Amino acid sequence: MVKNLFISVISQKEANRGSVEFQVFSFTNKIRRLTSHLELHRKDYLSQRGLRKTLGKRQRLLSYLAKKNRQFMEELIRGKPMNVPATREDLMIVNMGPHHPSMHGVLRLIITLDGEDVIDCEPILGYLHRGMEKIAENRTIIQYLPYVTRWDYLATMFTEAITVNAPEQLGNIQVPKRASYIRVIMLELSRIASHLLWLGPFMADIGAQTPFFYIFRERELVYDLFEAATGMRMMHNYFRIGGVAADLPYGWIDKCLDFCDYFLTGVSEYQKLITRNPIFLERVEGVGIIGVEEAINWGLSGPMLRASGIQWDLRKVDRYECYDEFDWEVQWQKEGDSLSRYLVRIGEMMESIKIIQQALEGIPGGPYENLEIRCFDRVRNPELNDFDYRFISKKPSPTFELSKQELYVRVEAPKGELGVFLIGDQNVFPWRWKIRPPGFINLQILPQLVKRMKLADIMTILGSIDIIMGEVDRLEYLKEVYGMIWVLVPIFTPVLGITIGVLAIVWLEREISAGIQQRIGPEYAGPLGILQALADGTKLLFKENLLPSRGDTRLFSIGPSIAVISILLSYLIIPFGSNLVLSDLNIGVFLWIAISSIAPIGLLMSGYGSNNKYSFLGGLRAAAQSISYEIPLTLCVLSISLRAIR
After folding, report:
1. 8 Å CB contact between 400 and 373
2. pLDDT surpassing 60 at residue 193
3. Is 453 exposed, middle or buried (0-12, 13-18, 19+ CB in 10 A)?
4. Nearest Cα to 512, choosing from 622, 642, 628?
């Protein structure tokens, strides 16, 4: 408090020199000077004695100020209460995001807050929309496979699996046992990689940075296995209709078994570091609770559903691939909060290791792809399928006709149920390809979860949902586009109406002029010359605009505007009555000639503003030509008026 008093004394230009505060300030400066002097002259005893006296005086003044300030505060407390700034009672709207695409994607949340309490939340998405469904309807399955890994770029094997499973079930294509085992291994490795890259950013969202760096150790090992088997670390293009693209290389199974043993120790480290951490438990326990009925009504799936007490796993329910041949358990919790979703995903990684180990130990021999399905390729032009075409020239990739049926196929992806609704039309292209992404469905419950929660809990709940914007953004883009269109319609409608009106008037004027002069005209674009006005307007807009460097640019630019405006005004002053009946022809023609005579002034202004003799002469010539045209133009107006009277 004394320090603040010193600052106030220093800041005032006209200080009261008799005040106690100013005396303390003076003593302080004197003490500094004496201290600096004694550093050079240590045996100056007179100065030492003066320093001690000054210190004593300063200390007594400081004690007096402290006592005075304490008495002032006590009197203030006994008297009228202090004025506390009033808290805002209205709600505050906060924009959270968009987030970075490598984290939660370009997701934007419009949050309504009452202090720290969340009142409402509106997710805005759709900034990455790439039309994956329409691309699928214009590609064969083989051509479309490289695209699908962009849905969920952290669990790419599952997007490839659902893409090939749909035509396999539609055409009743059998998959060799070895290929099915390889698929299961790749799917579970992809599940582990996806859960790892969920765990790290989720912990970073709630303030723990260490696990974010730890998870990349195991994830890079998984990607090393992917690279050795498929040639790519993320975008694999490995699954094929009837099997996989290539067999496992030599030594890959041993490396995968070593990874499984190593990963079990890594998961135990995560559990020791995270699961019993009191700060972590304080942030996630009891946050974002989803009940059983609520989870079913919202259509949740995956860990979001199993964390609410429902033991639903499509690997057990549908028994696709060869999951029913392995011994593993469905991981589930019954609390339904963010902690339960964390525990489910940790348990699923452990179960995935069990499945991988059993598949590696029991993987059978045989082919890795059903080569017989290539005969399903029905050639449209049999005459081209001769010996040279089949064995000498370049052979295209195999295509498969999709029978005229429809079905829905689903797999248990790391984030939930990933499904595809496929309609075939006896063609190599799907007639309809509808994707059911788990992240898009699970994100619907976010506004319900964050209501009545604190602002800091939003990132905890959003992170526990585990979304990837590549598969989420679908409809909001179109919604925003339609919204922008409806906003711009009232603006562009008058502009479009005026433009069409001007073009119609120009066309009618050309028609009348051509009729008077008994000629078609130098340029006659379109049927009945309708497009000629559009051609003139386009030429006027896009032709080169030359401004004189030495002239008066402002005057040179105003001139054409005056000429054009006067011409447009000339059509507005013709006095029409009800039902477009000309009320007074004499006054209308007189006013028209008067206003149209302003146009030569604009031409003269442009010629004069160019500061060029030849341009000025050109302006005079154009003005004279415009004046000479007044009589035929008046006849045009009369013709228009007569047509209007009819």
Report:
1. yes
2. yes
3. middle
4. 642
CB 200 within 8 Å of CB 214: yes
- Rounded CA gap, 475 and 479, in Å? 6
245-to-85, 163, 272, 360 alpha-carbon distances in Å:
70, 14, 40, 18
Cβ neighbors of 441 (< 8 A, separation 6 or more) are 298, 299, 300, 301, 416, 417
12-24 exposure pattern, b = at least 16 Cβ within 10 A, e = fewer: eeeeeeeeebbeb
User: Do the Cβ atoms of 150 and 130 come closer than 8 Å?
Assistant: yes
Comparing C-alpha atoms, which of 193, 194, 200 is closest to residue 221?
Answer: 193
pTM score, whole prediction: 0.61
Backbone torsion region of residue 37, taken as left when φ is above 0, otherwise alpha when ψ lies between -120 and 50, otherwise beta: alpha
Chain segment 464-493, per-residue pLDDT in tens? 998 888 888 664 444 445 556 666 777 777
- Whether 617 and 607 have beta carbons less than 8 Å apart is answered as yes
Q: Pairing relation of β-strands 416-423 and 108-114?
A: unpaired
Tokens of 486: 């409806």
Amino acid found at 278: P
Amino acid at residue number 511:
E
Nearest to 332 by CA among 343, 321, 324: 343
Structure tokens that stand for 52 in this block: 């001690």
pLDDT in tens, 531-579: 666 666 665 555 545 556 666 667 766 766 676 676 666 666 666 666 5
Distance CA 202, CA 208 (A): 9
Contact 9, 22 (CB under 8 A): yes
Q: Which residues pair with 454 in a beta bridge?
A: 117
> Could you identify the residue written with the tokens 């699954």?
239
Q: How confident is the model at residue 39 (pLDDT cuts 50, 70, 90)?
A: low
Nearest CA to 514 among 635, 645, 623, 622?
635
By DSSP bridging, strand 117-124 and strand 108-114 are antiparallel
Place 1 in a pLDDT band, splitting at 50, 70 and 90: very low
CA proximity to 65, closest of 145, 18, 143, 1: 1
**Which residue has tokens 């009589």?**
631
- What percent of the chain is predicted at pLDDT more than 70? 58
- Quick one: which H or E segment has residue 580? none
Contacts of 421 (CB under 8 A, 6+ apart): 406, 407, 408, 432, 433, 434, 436
